[in-house]
Specification:
By secondary structure, the chain is an alpha/beta fold. The protein has 13 helices and 14 strands. The chain is globular, with a radius of gyration of 21 Å. Bound molecules: iron/sulfur cluster.
Length: 337
């Protein structure tokens, strides 16, 4: 792991994303602020519907149209505000400066082109490489993501690859133009456990060798423990806790973060047939149009007080780089002051 938070490559500030729905305008991202340093791995965690994938799409300039809107805030890449950038500039930026890989590679790969052609396409588009140079670079990228016999496999089609190998191809396409940032949205969910570990090892290796900063979007705290330098925990479109990975795993402050950590399977040994025990957070993420003025987690929180339902808690600083939004933490801030 390697990070220098002092040098921000990406700065997201008070980002707000809203959607037009049958129930009216719904805010799916509420005043989100975070930064990413060069070479750093930032994990964004939370359950389905917490806003983590929408955050990634907003950073990429891919908020679904025409219903989605970035209504305020900024996304600065090396100082340039992408929220106010032209469509042409965003097109140029995607794949070249920020790339993204998704959960199911088959939906992103085109079944009628060879993997070599698909890697080469990105290189021709962004780097203006000729046919032979792009093919040579495609082979080089397949080798970099540890696909055996890359000279032969560059001519094969996506259906000839296993799920894990297809995700490696997606990573090869994403990194072909050497972007500064790779966003990986649940990249291993569709893969079995052994292959998941291999993909995480590959991402870690590529980050170390190429210096690519990674935003990993996941619901899996095991992946967080393995990959993260820093972590943002999101709930119902809000950041509820942020900290270095050791803050989040060893000193979680927000009841939701503690609930996510309790959901990790733990091996119960010492009796016949060792098993795993799983806790769970009761309830589900509420429909966003039904959120009131208070803490969005209140309906599921075992510690909820009347005050929690009346007003949303502010972020409380707990240590350098570690903050959480919960009324329970207010006395700690007062004590520190
Ligand atoms: Fe629970 Fe209240 Fe803290 Fe929200 S503010 S997490 S409801 S204790």
């Amino acid at each position: 792991m390697n990070a220098n938070p002092a040098i921000a490559l990406l700065e997201v500030e008070t980002l707000q994303v809203e959607f037009d729905t049958w129930d009216g305008r719904v805010r799916v991202i509420e005043s989100l602020t975070f930064s990413l340093a060069a070479g750093e791995t930032l994990c964004i965690v939370g359950e389905s519907g917490c806003g983590k994938s929408m955050t990634a799409l907003a950073v990429m300039g891919l908020v679904p149209q025409p219903t989605g809107h970035i209504t305020s805030g900024s996304v600065r890449l090396s100082g340039e505000d992408l929220v106010r950038a032209s469509a042409a500039r965003l097109q140029q930026m995607r794949g070249n400066e920020i790339s993204m890989i998704f959960q199911e590679p088959m939906t992103s790969l085109n079944p009628v082109y060879t993997v070599g052609e698909q890697i080469a396409e990105a290189l021709r588009l962004h780097r203006g490489l000729g046919r032979n140079a792009a093919r040579a670079r495609a082979i080089e990228m397949l080798r970099a993501v540890h696909i055996p016999e890359p000279e032969r496999r560059v001519e094969e089609y996506p259906h000839q690859f296993s799920g894990g190998m297809r995700q490696r191809v997606m990573i090869a396409i994403a990194l072909a133009c050497e972007p500064k940032i790779l966003i990986a949205d649940e990249p291993t969910t569709a893969l079995d456990v052994t292959v998941q570990a291999q993909i995480f090892d590959l991402l870690e290796e590529l980050r170390e060798t190429r210096g690519t900063a990674i935003i990993l979007i996941t619901h899996d705290m095991g992946a967080v423990a393995e990959m993260a330098d820093r972590v943002i925990v999101m709930y119902a479109g809000r950041k509820v806790e942020e900290g270095r990975v050791e803050d989040i795993l060893e000193r979680p402050a927000h009841p939701y973060t503690r609930g996510l950590l309790a959901c990790r399977p733990t091996l119960v040994l010492g009796h016949p047939g060792a098993r795993t025990e799983l806790a769970e957070i009761p309830g589900v993420v509420p429909p966003l149009h039904q959120l009131g003025a208070g803490c969005a987690f209140a309906p599921r929180c075992a510690h909820a007080m009347p005050r929690c339902r009346e007003s949303a808690p502010p972020q409380t600083g707990l240590a350098a780089g570690h903050a959480a939004a919960c009324w329970l933490l207010e006395p700690r801030q007062a004590a520190a002051a």
